[in-house]
Amino acid sequence: MANVRAGWLVLALLFGALFSGPALAFQTRIVSIPSAAMHRAFDATVVLPADYARGKAARFPVIYVLHGSGGNYADWTSNTHIGKLADRYHVILVMPDGGHESWYIDSPYDPRSRYETYVGTEVVSYVDTHFRTLATRETRAITGLSMGGFGALRIALDRRDTFGAAGSISGAVDPRNCEDEPGISDVFGDPARHASFWNSNAIVESARAFEHAHIALTIDCGVSDFFVQSNRMLHEKLVELGVPHDYAERPGGHDWNYWSNSIRYQVLFFSTSFQRGGWHPQTA
């Protein structure tokens, strides 16, 4: 009789495992975020960690992840497993739409292109209002790939009270190398007539601005990437200036194979930065 009861117990446990609901995992939401600066709304992807649904009081750090030229808000979730990182590190991930060729700047030559204000101010305000975030610079980071890497560093430098950490993946840190890219002169102006604007916005020329920005900084690029030389130049300038930062070159080129690997290291870096600022994921 004891063996029979044990058999039924095993079967019950097996059926329970088979038919019980799946374990909680991250949630992906598409939201529409309005821009007063551009008089329209844009979609954005928000990934909430599993912990978000377990409690109604816990608040979470936020990492903003920007797409590259020609991309959109869905690129990261369509091409990588970035959502799993929200669960692993207990963070909210936000992927806003930055337009096809905005370079995430407020263009003085196209008044309709105000993407630095949109991403750096309006998106942040919306996310802090609509989700349970830890709304401090110490628990807020921004990164991106290619054009988005440029945009992330530019926005972080211009909004030091907003972002305490920033990164760049395969970043176009010197847009002067991209003069022939279709659409770039619409936002930067003619390279010859507006050279001063191009120069002042190039991240490689803004290295000194990081000296007193107190931004936790991580930069990486593939060794076969056409942007690797400009990234090395930025790294060397930061070293000369004594600016603390992480820098890495890994095998790979300018493609999703590289970016999907790189983002794992960057989210780990940001999580560590948040913890140094006093946040502990076990309390989330």
UniProtKB/TrEMBL annotation:
Name recorded for this polypeptide: Esterase family protein
Gene3D superfamilies: alpha/beta hydrolase
UniProt xrefs under Pfam families: Esterase
UniProt-recorded Gene Ontology molecular function terms: acyltransferase activity, transferring groups other than amino-acyl groups
Top-level taxon in the UniProt lineage: Bacteria
SUPFAM superfamilies linked to this entry: alpha/beta-Hydrolases (SSF53474)
Stored PANTHER family: DIACYLGLYCEROL ACYLTRANSFERASE_MYCOLYLTRANSFERASE AG85A, ENTEROCHELIN ESTERASE-RELATED
